[in-house]
Write a structure and sequence with these properties.
- By secondary structure, the chain is of the alpha+beta class.
- The chain folds into 2 domains: about 15-185, Jelly Rolls; about 190-295, Homeodomain-like (Arc Repressor Mutant, subunit A, Orthogonal Bundle), CATH 1.10.10.
- The chain has helices spanning about 20-25, 115-120, 135-150, 160-175, 190-205, 210-220, 220-235, 235-255, 260-265, 270-285, 285-295, and strands at about 15, 35-45, 50-55, 60-65, 70-75, 75-80, 85-90, 95-100, 105-115, 130.
- The strands form 2 sheets. It has a 6-stranded antiparallel β-sheet. The protein has a 4-stranded antiparallel β-sheet with strand order 3-8-5-6, with no helix packed on it.
- α3 (about 135-150) packs antiparallel against α4, α6 (about 210-220) crosses α7 (about 220-235) and α8 (about 235-255) packs across α11 (about 285-295).
- The protein starts with 13 loop residues before the first strand and ends with a helix.
Length: about 300
């Protein structure tokens, strides 16, 4: 059964925390590697709600305020969060947030991770953490959050977690790309360049791209590109590309009967032994063991 924690005592709250042992098993599933919710919940009228994390956490945090207000502080910036706004805190960022004492917020929230999660989490510039959400999108997001909660009522079984991951992908897509109050095209050109880079990497999964190849495509110097890329994703450009390759390799191992050597070639590695060592370093087990345990 789901773990439903009520430590804050908010009447009507719903909170689901996926146990660590289950998360470790889910990490081997290729369909869940790109995007996975680890914690999710609804806190209505969350008076005295407060969180302080000096080192941040290893997941991204999304908070959607639908009533009342709250606040957050990151570095020297402190801002109020109103109804119709969302707060997005990338993983590893020190932060503090809480409900307004006089008009406490009601919030839907989710912690998530994965390469696709990184992409969504860094849609905002590094010094921005709030985005406005139009009323129609707010209603749609509330419906999607409710679907996620309902999917866990029967327990943390794999097909429900897969379903929740797909809902979360829809939720984040609606927030950033079907929200009339926010447009990614209003951001600076440096962020648009990196969006094109993500597509470029996906389209060239079979090549061994170098840092210079990626920086040249983005129209930036190697150092500037590396700095921006790591700021937005948490990975160096080369490490991110390797993770994309291993993600694709996982899919091929699970969904096809292609030999390991052929899969290695399809993602740009002529030496299957080098590919196997790299796969084990990233995924934690060898390609053959992955196929045997995940098939």
């Amino acid at each position: 059964m789901p773990i439903l924690r009520r430590r804050d005592g908010f009447t009507g709250q719903r909170q689901y925390v996926i146990p660590t042992a289950i998360l470790e098993k889910l990490a081997l599933q290729p369909i869940l590697q790109p995007l996975l919710a680890t914690d999710i919940g609804w806190y209505p009228n969350a008076r005295y709600h407060y969180r302080e994390r000096e080192q941040g956490i290893d997941t991204h945090i999304l908070i959607l305020c639908v009533h009342g207000s709250g606040w957050y502080q990151i570095a020297d910036t402190r801002r109020t969060i109103h109804a119709g706004e969302a707060l997005l805190i990338p993983r590893g960022v020190s932060h503090v947030y809480g409900a307004d004492e006089a008009d406490p917020w009601s919030i839907h929230w989710v912690h998530f991770k994965g390469i696709q999660g990184d992409y969504f989490a860094y849609q905002l510039p590094g010094d921005e953490h709030i985005l406005t959400v139009d009323p129609a999108t707010t209603a749609a997001l509330e419906h999607l959050f409710a679907e996620c909660y309902d999917s866990f009522v029967g327990g943390f079984v794999q097909h429900r977690l897969i379903y929740c991951a797909q809902i979360l992908h829809h939720l984040l897509g609606a927030l950033f790309f079907n929200n009339s109050a926010f447009s990614p095209m209003l951001r600076t050109s440096r962020f648009r360049n990196l969006e094109l880079t993500f597509t470029f990497l996906q389209q060239n999964i079979a090549r061994l791209l170098t840092l210079s190849d990626m920086a040249e495509h983005a129209g930036l110097s190697n150092s500037h590109f590396s700095h921006l890329f790591k700021q937005q994703t948490g990975y160096s450009p080369v490490d991110y590309f390797i993770h994309l390759k291993m993600q694709w390799a996982c899919s091929l191992l699970l969904l096809t009967t292609k030999p390991v050597q052929q899969i290695a070639c399809e993602i740009g590695y002529e030496d299957p032994y080098y590919f196997s060592r790299l796969f084990k370093k990233v995924i934690g087990i060898s390609p053959r063991a992955y196929r045997e345990t995940s098939g």
